[in-house]
């Protein structure tokens, strides 16, 4: 396991007003977009699929110790809430999804949405000539064959959701019991 | 001692003198004009040769290009304004149609400025929500220089940016150049800044941010006046608020540009 290099924060992160909700709606919108993209790249960098706000507000993501500015829990929740909404609803294009256990504190951060992961998987399966073969979900996530792939070490739930997208599209079939799932690609 | 004619003959003399003076004057004038015209045409052809000879440098080196453009302007050849003016007598020397640049550089110079203009417009639109439609020429140049995709950066000077923005004017685009303090900005929303707003933006340029008390202290403004200006700037999206300090601070979003994209 290699250590992750430090996350390269964008210049916005060092802009003090970034941490205060902007009173002007247009500016606020620009601000939310910047937060959304920052959260996504942060999670992507750390290969993180779910974000617990309680932990995150203490992490560098929401707490800029150099500036002594922070996004508090309520504000962080507002940002993620905006991310969960579609663009038609004036949100951030469903780049996040609340994990429904208890109040809004943990969310999936879709730096790739399940549908997008599904495309990545299909490309990989086709590119490596594994169409028609059977793989276990464990192999997909931890197997040596997919070591270099972005989905290596993926959250199992996210993998299953992405696979289910393929099932719906008729491109894959899942079988086996929970924790033992296998998948066949067509 | 001047010789003064006596009698009626003097009248005839005088008329003659006046006439000959006039002829002489006309002669001088036409020689002058002729020589000036020769000079000008020589100069134009020299400029032409110069431009042809250095066309690659003009295209690739922004500083050189700016100097060249400045030189053209000084002698009244505006590379862009000259575009597509097909006077009946004018520009005979430059051939049919097309701008000065097109004539000498084979078309891609004009395209160059249009390309820059397109980038500027794109950038202004993209960033309008974060900077209220006011973007520093310098920041704009950096961003256009970087380009979005790899290898798409255009090496440009501030002068190129200004020229490109000016080339948009005939379109009634509402893009204009405003000067605040020592800095030039591109305003992509047709709205005037009043004196107070410009002053505050100038202070932000120098200090990085402002607060109401700073304005009251430094500019000796009444609280209401300072508050009004700040509220207006906020409403126009020209400043961002930081409420996490002891006093509310207002920052200019000009430095935000680098990250998006």
Automatic annotation (TrEMBL), chain A:
Pfam families: ESCRT-II. This is Vacuolar protein-sorting-associated protein 25. PANTHER family: VACUOLAR PROTEIN SORTING-ASSOCIATED PROTEIN VPS25, VACUOLAR PROTEIN-SORTING-ASSOCIATED PROTEIN 25. One of its GO terms (molecular function) is protein homodimerization activity. The keyword Protein transport applies. One of its GO terms (biological process) is macroautophagy. One of its GO terms (cellular component) is ESCRT II complex. Keywords: Cytoplasm, Protein transport, Transport. Transmembrane segments: none annotated. It is found in: Cytoplasm. It comes from Penicillium rubens (strain ATCC 28089 / DSM 1075 / NRRL 1951 / Wisconsin 54-1255) (Penicillium chrysogenum). Belongs to the VPS25 family. Its main location: cytoplasm. It comes from the Eukaryota.
Automatic annotation (TrEMBL), chain B:
It comes from the Eukaryota. This is Vacuolar-sorting protein SNF8. Component of the endosomal sorting complex required for transport II (ESCRT-II), which is required for multivesicular body (MVB) formation and sorting of endosomal cargo proteins into MVBs. Signal peptide: none annotated. It comes from Penicillium rubens (strain ATCC 28089 / DSM 1075 / NRRL 1951 / Wisconsin 54-1255) (Penicillium chrysogenum). Belongs to the SNF8 family. The keyword Cell inner membrane does not apply. GO terms for cellular component: ESCRT II complex. Pfam families: EAP30. PANTHER family: EAP30 SUBUNIT OF ELL COMPLEX (PTHR12806), VACUOLAR-SORTING PROTEIN SNF8 (PTHR12806:SF0). InterPro entries: ESCRT-2_cplx_Snf8, Snf8/Vps36, WH-like_DNA-bd_sf, WH_DNA-bd_sf. The keyword Transport applies. Component of the endosomal sorting complex required for transport II (ESCRT-II). GO terms for biological process: protein transport to vacuole involved in ubiquitin-dependent protein catabolic process via the multivesicular body sorting pathway. It is found in: Cytoplasm; Endosome membrane.
């Amino acid at each position: 396991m290699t250590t992750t290099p430090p996350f390269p924060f964008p210049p916005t992160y060092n802009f003090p007003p970034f941490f205060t909700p902007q009173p002007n709606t247009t500016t606020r919108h620009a601000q939310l977009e910047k937060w959304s993209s920052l959260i996504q790249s942060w999670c992507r960098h750390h290969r993180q699929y779910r974000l617990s706000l309680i932990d995150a507000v203490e992490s560098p993501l929401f707490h800029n110790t150099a500036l002594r500015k922070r996004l508090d829990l309520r504000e962080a929740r507002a940002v993620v809430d905006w991310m969960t909404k579609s663009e038609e609803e004036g949100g951030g294009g469903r780049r996040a999804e609340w994990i429904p256990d208890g109040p809004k504190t943990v969310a999936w951060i879709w730096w790739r949405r399940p549908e997008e992961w599904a495309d990545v998987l299909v490309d990989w399966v086709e590119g490596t000539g594994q169409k028609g073969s059977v793989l276990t979900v464990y192999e997909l996530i931890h197997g040596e064959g997919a070591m270099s792939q972005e989905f290596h070490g993926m959250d199992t739930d996210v993998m299953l959701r992405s696979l289910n997208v393929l099932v719906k599209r008729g491109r894959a079939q899942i079988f086996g019991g929970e924790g033992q799932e296998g998948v066949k690609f067509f | 001692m001047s010789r003064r004619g006596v009698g009626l003959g003097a009248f005839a003399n005088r008329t003659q003198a006046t006439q000959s003076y006039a002829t002489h004057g006309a002669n001088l004038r036409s020689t002058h004009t002729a020589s000036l015209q020769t000079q000008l045409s020589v100069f134009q052809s020299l400029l032409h040769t110069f431009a042809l000879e250095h066309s690659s440098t003009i295209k690739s080196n922004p500083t050189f290009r700016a100097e060249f453009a400045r030189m053209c302007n000084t002698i009244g050849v505006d590379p862009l304004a000259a575009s597509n003016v097909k006077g009946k007598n004018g520009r005979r020397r430059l051939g049919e149609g097309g701008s000065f640049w097109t004539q000498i550089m084979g078309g891609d110079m004009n395209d160059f400025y249009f390309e820059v203009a397109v980038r500027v417009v794109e950038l202004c639109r993209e960033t309008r929500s974060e900077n209220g439609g006011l973007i520093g020429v310098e920041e704009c140049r950096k961003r256009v220089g970087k380009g979005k995709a790899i290898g798409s950066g255009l090496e440009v000077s501030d002068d190129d940016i200004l020229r490109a923005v000016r080339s948009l004017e005939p379109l009634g685009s509402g893009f204009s150049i405003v000067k605040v303090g020592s800095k030039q900005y591109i305003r992509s929303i047709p709205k005037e800044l009043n004196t107070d707003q410009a002053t505050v933006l100038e202070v932000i340029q120098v200090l990085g941010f402002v607060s109401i008390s700073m304005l009251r202290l430094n500019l000796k403004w009444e609280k209401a006046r300072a508050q009004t200006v700040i509220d207006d700037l906020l409403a126009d999206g020209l400043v961002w608020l930081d409420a996490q300090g002891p006093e509310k601070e207002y920052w200019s979003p000009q430095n935000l540009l680098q990250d998006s994209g």
